[in-house]
Amino acid sequence: MDPWGQLAHLSKQELQELQNSKLHTFINTHLYPFSPYYQKLFDQQKINPKNIKTVADLKHLPFTSKLNFIDPNNPDEYRNFILQPDKVKIRKYWPPPKLLSLAVESAVRGKTAIEEKLSREYQPVFMTYTTGTTNRPVPFFYSDYDIQNLYVSGGRMLNLFGIKREERIVNMFPFAPHLAFWQ
């Protein structure tokens, strides 16, 4: 059975446990270490990322709005939302098994292959903007990894709705940088 099929057959409790585990891992190995904005926010609010263990714990985080992307004194504030890993942060925040896996892969495939892999996951390759209703369009960046996830989730939706290859569908969403349009 494919991974999506396995997920689709989990119980509600199993699905919640998986979501909580993935959330905790994401916050501690990607968001906090690599996002200048969220690292500063967590530190200022004295939020220990290790304490965010469940979806319910998200209520302890301040809400982020479009206004957080727009700072008249710092027009490049949006860049602080882009995940920015480097060797020092990876070594500091990634768990030993993940570091070991990276080291083995580097030994087998070479350092350049690891750099390319990390680049595909984190380096922005596609950009869209909001429509600028706040008098300032806000850019959104997607990595190759993000684009691949859109491809996979789009395929899952087609599968879920039983859309066959020979059928045609029409996207009725207006052109905009939201996921409904891009899907």
Give Rg in angstroms.
19 Å
Decide which structural class fits the backbone: mainly alpha
Order of helices and strands: HHHHHHEEHH
What percent strand?
A: 5-15%
Overall geometric form: globular
Mean pLDDT: 88
The major beta sheet can be summarized as: 2 strands, antiparallel
* Multimerization state: single chain
- List how many beta strands DSSP finds: 2
Strand order of the largest sheet: 1-2
Low-confidence stretches: none
N-C termini distance: 25 Å
Proportion of residues in helical segments: 40-55%
Helix count, DSSP H or I runs of 4 or more residues:
8
Concise structural overview:
This protein has about 180 residues and is mainly alpha-helical. It has 8 helices and 2 strands. The longest helix has 23 residues, at about 10-35.
Provide key terms for this protein.
mainly alpha, about 180 residues, 8 helices, globular, two-stranded antiparallel ribbon, about 50% helix
Structural commentary:
By secondary structure, the protein is mostly helical. The protein contains 8 helices and 2 strands. Helix 2 crosses helix 4.
How is this fold's topology laid out?
Layout: H1 3-8, H2 12-34, H3 36-44, H4 87-93, H5 96-109, H6 111-122, E1 124-129, E2 139-143, H7 144-160, H8 179-182
Antiparallel strand pairs: 1-2
